[in-house]
Here is the input.
Amino acid sequence: MSNLSDLLPAGASAKQITATDSGSGIASKKPVILNSDGTVAEVFGSTVVTSAGAESTFDSAAITSFVDATYDTANNKVVMIWRTSAVGDYGYAAVGTVSGTSISWGARVAFNSGVTSVGRIDFDTNAGKVLIIFNSSITGSNIAYGIVGTVSGTSISFGTKVALHTREYNDAAIVYDSSANASLIVYADPGNSAYPTGKVATISGTSVSFGSAAVIASYGLQSVSLAYSTAASKSAVNMRDVHNGDQRAVVATISGTSVSFGAYTQASSNYYHGNTAAYDVNADRVVFAGTTQGASYYGRCVVGTISGTSISFGTEVTFTTSTLGYQKAVYDSLAKTINICYAIDAASRLGEMVVGTVSDTTIAFALPFQFHPNPTMQLGATFDSDTNQTIVGYKGTSDYGEAKALVTGRDATNLTAQAFVGVADSAISASAAGSIIVQGGTVTGPTADVTVSQSLSSAFLYGQDAPADPVNSKAAAAGGNNYLIAYEVNDGATKGARVQAATVTTGNLSYGSSAVIGASTDFVYTYSISYDSTNDKFVVFWRNQTDGYIYAAVVTLTGNSVSYGATSAVYSAVNVNRNGSFSSTYDPDTDRVILGVCDDSDNYAYSVVIELGTTTIDTVGTPQKIDSASATAGYGKSIALCYDTTENKVIATYVYVGGGGSYYLRVAAGTVAGGVSNSTTWGSSSVVYSGDADRAAIAYNATDQRVVVAYKQASDSKGYSSVATVSGTTVTANTPSIFFDAASGTLSIFGLAHDAYVNQMVIYARASQGDAFNGSIDTAANTIVWSAKFDVDAAAYNPPQIAFNSNTNQTIISGAAGYKSAANSYIWTVPGTVTGQPLTTGTKYFVTPSGGFSSTAGDPSVNAGLAISTTSLLLNGDS
Here is the structure.
């Protein structure tokens, strides 16, 4: 890299340099880095989604037993071990080189020329060697051994194996202790009632020696894993205790060639099969995971905190309700997550990875990522700290030894503390020279990024003046400083379309009295609401259960007081009777409201353009088929609308069931004409999903200029989303991503909206309870990375409503559970980052990995300087 001093003008008072852009251009007031060739570039970041590289084969012969892996940090190589049936069930090893998301393997090398079982491997950073422990059965002699492996290039060689124990162990684990420069081994001693026993292993040259055995407890052990805490300089031992029928843990301390253990502590009342453990360096916590014993073999884990020679645990967390076989946890030091790879113990044998983020004594998991459609039970994993990827090896579809590199979703950046040079004084064109303000200089004009943390308000009750239980919210919309909700009182006696309004202020919803806006002689169960932003009006649609028609009324709010005009029938076809069978949206370009309807009388999806008057419906256009090419043998069963303000198009997504049992979730764009015609010209529809979908929802993200469709897939009951691009009347839906995995409840109905404040897509769903999700759109890949579910309310979920209020920048969620005490609405503060905020005078700022300034340090932590006003930053580099 060029020296910064070479570029600076002479003199201690110099505050600027002239430098040449590397070729991409630099925006004004943006932080820049110095490249190795002397050019400069704007700091940028991007979201890397979870992905898997191509499958690679480390053994083309059928493997029969264990797979385990470690990472050699001295040689930047992956080392995989396994047993193969090719020659007498020998134990083999191979060296893998990771390039991008691909892995190439050297020739397999036998570390034991005999029947080998329960092999475990770890890397000794002090010796620069790998240590393998294993059981060996040769000519009737069953002994546990240790052997040292040395990696050279793409090959590995081994020293002489050394007896670890006079008999084979039942199970064992190994972990390296960097403070002791030795490894801890814990195993079940079959010669001593399978008691958990520890030994210290020390490598010298190409040989290993073992210290004296130390018994942990006088109870039988069946499964064990270890994790080393760099902060405590101790190891946590995770054991399945056969005697107590639960999961136990101890803290191990190495001294020389001996090991001692602290108190024997319960980690879980369950006990785990396939124990695995990992240490989270960032959170300074250990995580134990495994498959719980019992009727439901779920994947569960607990977070442990080491204090001295003791360990305590938080509440157990379920990371999947699938029945699992073997699993392996690793720590991702870049993403700062615990990644658990596992194989589902079912006919499909899917290979999945879940990513967990530790917070204090608990851990939250994102949705599982499928890395392989059919691996078997044998599975091992390690983390490649050079390419920052999780490497998983497994017994593959054809019983071969196979592996993949898995990239965990994270932020990528070109920023480093060493490379940060300053801030562009003004915009610099691509490959042109320009002025960079450097350390000691003052930059006027930068803005700050503000991190918004997730939070939930207390509950704001609506429907309290309803005549009876139950209360179920059916539609909601936000506009101006108001929130309008429509709900049913389904007690078999109360009738009429009922609405209630709230005045919205920062952190508060203040509800007024409810009103019945339609005929009080008719039952109403289904609603839709749209907000006319041009005229500050709401229009409420509902289905009259008596005649099956859809009616509407214009609602005006004065604070939280409701006034309304005469009721109009806007769709006079019978049998529009399914939930989600109609939807509405507002077109600000033509000042029209568009209604979408799934019509049971002829099975087509229709749109109707509606013109609002001051207090009434003025004009109702003629219904038009959205998709006239659809076969009349089919029918539409769910529809949702939104409006694309960039392309000036109304977008409809609808579930269409074609003749012969073909199911399709389709999407189409239409051009609205006002004036005399009040019509819509629809383009050709396209397929979002070629299968049975249910409860489709749609929303437009004006910031990213993308349409998002969410739906439930009938084949697996999971919730999916697809990011669509719109060009004219052509809509292109992209590869779907999962927002709900069906592992923690049954997904029913959900709402979708865009939180423009933090630029997050948001979903409120009826699932395990009222569950909220948020996700950012990657516009390059046209995908969304969804958050783990956020549990909102065990009762207020039926059906869930979600709306974004742009006046207060708040997302409002509402629901009910059939009774008034659960008619709850909340203000959900969606987590994210808000850009373009003024600086806070006297506050220290950092360069963000995405190329901004924030008062919160990022990763890497790069100091920018001190705010000397709300618009000026005094640069002082990374000091």
